[in-house]
Design goal:
The protein is of the alpha/beta class. 39% of the residues lie in helices and 16% in strands. The strands form five sheets. The protein has a six-stranded antiparallel sheet with strand order 13-12-16-15-14-17, with helices on both faces. It is elongated and about 120 Å long. The protein starts with 6 loop residues before the first strand and ends with a strand. Bound molecules: iron/sulfur cluster (2 copies).
Length: 576
């Protein structure tokens, strides 16, 4: 048994954009150590996060090897093929059946057969008029959504298994309880359904996984030879093939003879479903309502594992083209999977106002004016983020405005505390930013203005403050950093490093007064000279006495002395 949840995150691929958090209506995603991971207990496996993740970090569990294992373990294994197959594979049904059988399957059957059974049973249930509200159990993502997030409505879910489960039961009735069943469709939530009902469905694959498996076995559908009599077993499906398109289930219920006074409505997508059920109460409606609800907008045809390249309208058109109607629809289903759905309300912990205030403070929100509710973190409001922080599902670094303020504060603290002068200028050589050390160094007369104005010297002309603007101009033009080691201005020497901040737009410089250091070097050199000269005299005397190597020794000592002396006044390095 593979215990991995059907959707997971490749942490190294996650770029912390929080798009999945923003787009998951269930907020079933936790950010931990800067990376997003799905919370299985809250996830309904709608697959939306997989579709929206810009870095393809959200992945779907691959069950091909599990399906292979079923083929090895069981004598006969059948495919339950979702009716939206025609929107994914552009080939006739015979070629697809022949290709899938080459993988080792005993037979290929349409899940639509199960859908027809469900419609007949639901029509019967509706005709009893025992409830005013009925919610279809066909979509496992919707069923989980109701159980987890609208638990009071769980009682209205029709007490029958999904088309896939009903189809599995039908196949077992025809071919024996020992057969294996592999579902293939456009849905991720079906993996949850298979995991939870292993007695009916062994494994659930997506269309992509099945296509990958065929490719691994070098089976090319278009080139495949089709034997005579190749067809779906135990028979072709009829009206059940309408199911993957929004409104399709209701169509089949009408065809099954549903009374006209029962209102059949269809809703697709989680937000639309949530809205449509808001405040719905049986006492406020005068006739029974059946809600065909599907988590994917437009129906399963738009499931997360459809062909992403194919225009949606063509997908639907190709599916509808396969539908064939029968003259008589039975009044009784051949099989029914009786199913009781149990509410599983989420334990949303309530926090005290003090806890919320504390959590808000941790992201720099100290008053209502700080609450931007920008949604950048993935949550609609700052308060929702605060609650997620308290529950451990979020981190303070998710708040963009807080991180920005923090970065600005850190940068200005660094600017303030640096002993070197810092200045940044734009392409027009207008000052953008300076620190106090810069003003003290080059414009001490402006120190009061600098301190009084929140923007300091910003906007001022750089050439009115420093005489080396040409270095900035050259750097901004060439994109190269420039380093002057001993730049003389009046009686002072400066080390100037000019560097590009934004290509051709912003340039900055770090300037250090090195006059003192250079003077010390000179003093050391002078003292060294004196010592050397004394030494030379002594050595000359000794050499005279010894008559050896006097010239060599003098040369060597002179070189040492020169090393301490000042090198040329200006030394420039360009690098990058
Ligand atoms: S969408 Fe989610 S999983 Fe994908 S990169 Fe953004 S934060 Fe990470
Ligand atoms: S699959 Fe759906 S419910 Fe689960 S985390 Fe992704 S978007 Fe949320």
């Amino acid at each position: 048994m593979n215990n991995q949840y059907p959707i997971y995150t490749l942490k190294n691929e996650c770029v912390d954009c929080y798009k999945c958090v923003r787009q998951c209506s269930m907020k079933a995603i936790r950010i931990e150590n800067g990376h997003a991971s799905v919370i299985p207990e809250r996830c309904i496996a709608c697959g939306h996060c997989v579709l929206v993740c810009p870095s393809e970090a959200k992945k779907i569990r691959n069950d091909v090897n599990r399906a292979r294992a079923v083929l090895t373990a069981k004598k006969r294994v059948f495919v339950s093929l979702a009716p939206s197959w025609a929107g994914f594979w552009n080939c006739g049904e015979e070629k697809l059946i022949a290709a899938l059988k080459k993988l080792g399957f005993e037979g290929i059957s349409e899940t639509a057969l199960g859908a027809q059974e469900v419609s007949i049973e639901v029509t019967k249930l509706l005709s009893k008029r025992e409830n005013k509200i009925h919610i279809s159990s066909a979509c496992p993502a919707i069923v989980d959504y109701v159980r987890l997030y609208m638990p009071d409505y769980t009682q209205y879910i029709t007490p029958v298994g999904s088309p896939a489960m009903t189809h599995a039961k039908l196949l077992k009735k025809h071919y024996g309880d020992d057969i294996g069943i592999v579902f293939i469709g456009p849905c991720i939530a079906k993996k949850n359904e298979a995991d939870r009902n292993p007695e009916l469905i062994d494994v659930s694959l997506t269309f992509h996984e099945a296509a990958q498996w065929l490719a691994q076995e070098n089976i090319n559908i278009n080139d495949i030879e089709v034997d005579e009599g190749t067809c779906f077993v135990p028979q072709k499906a009829y009206e059940g093939a309408y199911y993957p398109i929004e409104g399709g289930m209701n169509k089949t219920i009408r065809l099954s003879g549903c009374a006209k006074d029962i209102q059949l409505v269809s809703v697709s997508s989680i937000p639309a479903f949530k809205d449509s059920l808001q405040n719905l109460h049986p006492d406020t409606i005068d006739r029974p309502i059946f809600i065909e609800a599907l988590a994917c907008p437009g129906g399963c045809a738009n499931g997360p594992c459809k062909d992403p390249e194919k225009p949606g309208i063509l997908t639907m058109s190709d599916i509808l083209r396969t539908v064939k109607l029968r003259d008589n629809i039975p009044n009784e289903p051949e099989v029914v999977v009786e199913k009781e759905y149990v509410a599983h309300p989420q334990n949303t912990k309530k926090y005290t106002p003090e806890q919320i205030v504390e959590a808000m403070a941790s992201i720099g929100k100290h008053g209502i004016e700080d609450e931007l509710n920008c949604g950048g973190c993935g949550y609609d409001t700052c308060r929702q983020l605060a609650e997620a922080l308290l529950s451990g599902d979020a981190e303070p670094s998710m708040c963009v405005s807080y991180m920005r303020k923090l970065a600005i504060r850190k940068a200005s603290a660094m600017l303030r505390s640096m002993p070197s002068a810092i200045v940044m200028a734009d392409a027009d050589m207008r000052i953008l930013e300076t620190n106090e050390a810069f003003v003290r160094m080059f414009a001490p007369d402006l120190l009061e203005i600098f301190k009084d104005r929140p923007e300091g010297l910003a906007g001022g002309a750089l050439d009115r403050v420093v005489p080396f603007v040409d270095l900035f101009k050259r750097s901004i033009k060439s994109g190269k950093d420039i380093h002057k080691e001993r730049y003389a201005i009046d009686k002072k020497l400066y080390d100037i490093a000019v560097f590009e901040i934004e290509r051709n737009k912003i340039v900055g410089a770090v300037i250090t007064d090195v006059t003192q250091t250079e003077m010390k070097r000179e003093q050391i050199a002078q003292k060294a000279h004196a010592v050397i000269e004394k030494n030379i005299a002594t050595v000359q005397n000794i050499a005279c006495l010894l008559g050896e190597h006097m010239v060599d020794t003098e040369l060597l000592l002179s070189q040492i002395a020169q090393g301490y002396e000042e090198t040329p006044a200006e030394e420039e390095q360009e690098f990058k």
